[in-house]
Amino acid sequence: MHQSSVIARRVAAASVGLVVAAGAAACGPEDNDAKGAGGDSTPHKGGTLTVLNAEAQTDFDPARLYTSGGGNVPSLVFRTLTTRNRENGAEGAKVVPDLATDTGRPSKDATVWTYTLKKGLEYEDGTPITSADIKYGIERSFAPELSGGAPYLRDWLSGAADYQGPYKDKKGLSAIETPDARTIVFHLNKPEGEFPFLATQTQFAPVPKAKDTGTKYEQHPVSSGPYKVVRNQNDGERVLLERNPHWSGDDERKAYPDKVDVRSGLDSSVINQRLAASQGADKAAVTTDTNLGPAELARVSGDKGLAARVGTGHFGYTDYIAFNPKVKPFDDPKVRQAISYAVDRSSVINAAGGSALAEPATTFLPDQKSFGYTPHDLFPAGKSGNAAKAKELLKEAGHPNGLTVTLTHSNSKDFETSPEIATALQDALKKAGITVRLQGLEDNDYRDKIHSIKTEPGFFLAHWGADWPSGGPFLAPIFDGRQIVKDGANFNTGLLDDKSVNTEIDAINKLTDLNAAAARWGALDKKIAGNALVVPLFHPVYKRLYGSDVRNIVISDWTGVLDISQVAVK
């Protein structure tokens, strides 16, 4: 999982949009009517759904996409063994069958997972979908020229670590067996109770070997979903989808529109202006990657008509302060604790855009049941910081007159790791006698610096998002000592290598009862918090406009954004 460097970013871009979200309940009646604004709220088939996005839908190949739950636009073309439950809020954080008849049948130790395909599945050309096609689709995702997808399969499948894909190795992966056309069996090198979540990734989409065109496949991937690609311009800048006549329907995708027209490369302010004006084709438009900013939200909130067309969602995501305990004075737990007490979360949330766009966090895990959220606050700072307690700890640490530290952040205007957040922290810590010098870096330099053990600063802003709604992909990459990477991208920024933590991660991974696993993840989150290696700050919230003719709004806690497989435009 250490390669999930850009989990928050890649899950976002490929699957759910530019991530700036997290939290508790998703879209509810207080935000919009869940059916659509104005007119006949009953969803009907027909029409064209327009998607207005800032980022292009690049690498439209199931091998190369880094998605969660099958993605948003990708999920219209690629079906996978399992997928996310297409329901509002917490119900949407569950994994459900897609191509398979169930979410998988594990062996006693969860090292072998068996799936059976549903009957009658067909591609867009009417040919049958087989288990061999899913095996081949997974194998081609190992080809270096098709890299970009999630790293788990290489880590989890037996003997897969050095596999180079079917173009170089015709034998394929022995860890995947297809005893018949409808059965596929996966052999893992360690117990993984969350394999059904992994099976939602687009690497599990079937690819017919005879139609594989390598790196050109993204131009016309063969559809197993309700829509097929009829045009892909400029590597996803415009993607036009039309109905797949051989899609037999499924339990999750409604697929109401006749066509889906994805137009990208637009400025975020232009997207919000067009959605607000809602004229012509934009009446039937949505966005999967553009939030309302603080100023835009203020304008929208003052207009009842517009406010009724805002979808509110939450995604498993946390913004936080990270410490490197190898760098003085952060090698002293009391200094880290002092900073934890001194933080003014109210001012940080204001800097993030206000309470409508950010919710305070005292736990590293997002406050959703599926993650195992267990409320705790080991270093209570209250709403505006506890400067007195911070000064007391600094004195005990040998700094009776305070100290001076440097906080590294990104110069990107993302309202997460940006100058606004850094300045809010600088002001709060000053009250506790801590002088904070700010080191702002361009975004690429910032990421390179904080993700290298050789250059990691002692005190910096960070964020993390989950590949799927569980505590596993949230805690393990950040706190599992075996995932410390010395010569590459490292995400265990606190360099924690605690045998008891590592052992508990392994024990939880063996559980196939996801509710039992969630409770253990929550308890582990609280245990790790005692090390004061991070200071959770807030969980961002999505606020996104949609056109006046858009109906049937579904926003799950898996993605936090409008699910375009559910919307109707008539």
What's the topology here?
Layout: H1 7-16, E1 48-52, E2 82-84, E3 95-97, E4 105-106, E5 112-116, H2 131-140, H3 152-156, E6 176-180, E7 183-187, H4 195-198, E8 227-233, E9 238-243, E10 259-263, H5 268-277, E11 285-286, H6 294-301, H7 304-307, E12 310-313, E13 317-323, H8 333-342, H9 345-351, E14 358-360, H10 387-396, E15 403-410, H11 419-430, E16 434-441, H12 443-450, E17 459-465, H13 472-479, H14 499-509, H15 514-529, E18 534-540, E19 542-545
Parallel strand pairs: 1-10, 1-11, 15-16
Antiparallel strand pairs: 2-3, 4-5, 5-7, 6-7, 8-9, 9-10, 12-19, 13-17, 13-18, 14-18
Helix pairs in contact: 8-10, 9-11, 14-15
Signal peptide: 1-26
Protein name: ABC transporter substrate-binding protein
GO molecular function: peptide transmembrane transporter activity
CATH architecture of the domain at 317-542: Roll
Strand content: 15-25%
Uncertain parts:
1-39
DSSP summary: helix tally: 15
Cα shape: globular
Number of strands: 19
Q: How many whole angstroms does the radius of gyration measure? A: 23 Å
Looking at CATH, the homologous superfamily of the domain at 317-542 is Dipeptide-binding Protein, Domain 3
Q: Structural class, judged by helices and strands?
A: alpha+beta
Widest beta sheet: strand line-up: 8-9-10-1-11
Roughly what is the average pLDDT, rounded to an integer?
92
Major β-sheet, in short? 5 strands, mixed
CATH class of the domain at 317-542: Alpha Beta
